[in-house]
Amino acid sequence: MTGSTRRHFLAGGLRSAGLVALGGLACDGDRPHAGFLGLMEGVNERFQRALFDPRRLAPELSEEEETAPEDFPAYKISRELPVAPAGWALAVRGLVARPLTLSVEELRRLPQTRTRVRHHCVEGWSAVASWEGVRLSELARLAGADPRARYVEFRSFDSGYWSSWDLESALHPQTILAYGMNGAPLQPEHGAPLRLYSAVKLGYKMVKYLTEVSFLPVRTGGYWEDQGYEWFAGV
């Protein structure tokens, strides 16, 4: 099954079948993962995990297909545009042999990668941008991620926005920590100085304004996930 076919099936087939919407838009009041919806989310997640292949790459698109930066929707939780605190640095911690604290300059000195893939939002829109940064798998290698770590948690300075991922998706070759967009430094409206970006997740999983990456042995939640949105959220 191709990536495109899989996305169409997940976006259309599961909704029409009455299972869980991809973004978990329907939630169960104070217990978003309880009862029937919780059961159906589990079914949906097992299905997506079965389809996920850590070796499969999303199609890389041409420069002509890029969405103009001003037309690429921006999103934040804070009322005001988040601004990086003085002395900002990314912390890499948790189950790692060598905890790291990295400035943007230090991140730029690491092996750089670029990816230009289609971005999918749970609200139904899509857009294309070129992202420059460092693979998360490179940071996992540098920090010496422990084999007992099965999940990765991402925290930000955008009013505490956060998310957590399965390790396999986090280490996918097209999962990067991006400090550039369309050949220019990342701008505040798109998550500067550093944001998570990946070809394998829906947009709300891609935490902007990153401050912390933690490798963990147990699964946690996320800003939207704790309100009923689907946790795995693959595309």
Notes on the structure:
With 235 residues, this protein is of the alpha+beta class. It has a single domain (59-227), classed as Sulfite Oxidase, Chain A, domain 2, CATH 3.90.420.10. The chain contains five helices and ten strands. It has helices at residues 3-16, 35-51, 104-108, 136-143, 167-170, and strands at residues 90-94, 100-102, 113-120, 126-135, 151-156, 162-166, 175-181, 184-185, 195-198, 210-216. Strands 2-1-10-5-6 form a five-stranded mixed sheet. Strands 3, 4, 7, 8 and 9 form a five-stranded antiparallel sheet that branches. The radius of gyration is 17 Å and the shape is globular. The chain starts with a helix and ends in a 19-residue tail after the last strand. 37% of the residues are buried.
Topology:
Blueprint (H helix, E strand, L loop, with lengths): L2 H14 L18 H17 L38 E5 L5 E3 L1 H5 L4 E8 L5 E10 H8 L7 E6 L5 E5 H4 L4 E7 L2 E2 L9 E4 L11 E7 L19
Parallel strand pairs: 1-10
Antiparallel strand pairs: 1-2, 3-4, 4-7, 5-6, 5-10, 7-8, 7-9
CATH topology: Sulfite Oxidase, Chain A, domain 2
How does the overall form come out from the CA principal axes?
Answer: globular
Q: Got a strand count?
A: 10
Helix content: 10-25%
Q: What structural class should be given to the helix and strand makeup?
A: alpha+beta
Task: Provide the CATH architecture.
Answer: Alpha-Beta Complex
- The top-level CATH class is Alpha Beta
Largest sheet report: 5 strands, mixed
Q: SSE order, as H and E?
A: HHEEHEEHEEHEEEE
What oligomerization state is this entry in? single chain
User: What distance separates the N and C termini?
Assistant: 12 Å
- Beta-strand fraction estimate: 15-25%
CATH superfamily: Oxidoreductase, molybdopterin-binding domain
Unreliable stretches: 1-32
* Rg of Cα set: 17 Å
Count of separate DSSP helical elements: 5
Look at the structure and give the mean pLDDT.
Answer: 84
Question: What's the arrangement of strands in the largest beta sheet?
Answer: 2-1-10-5-6
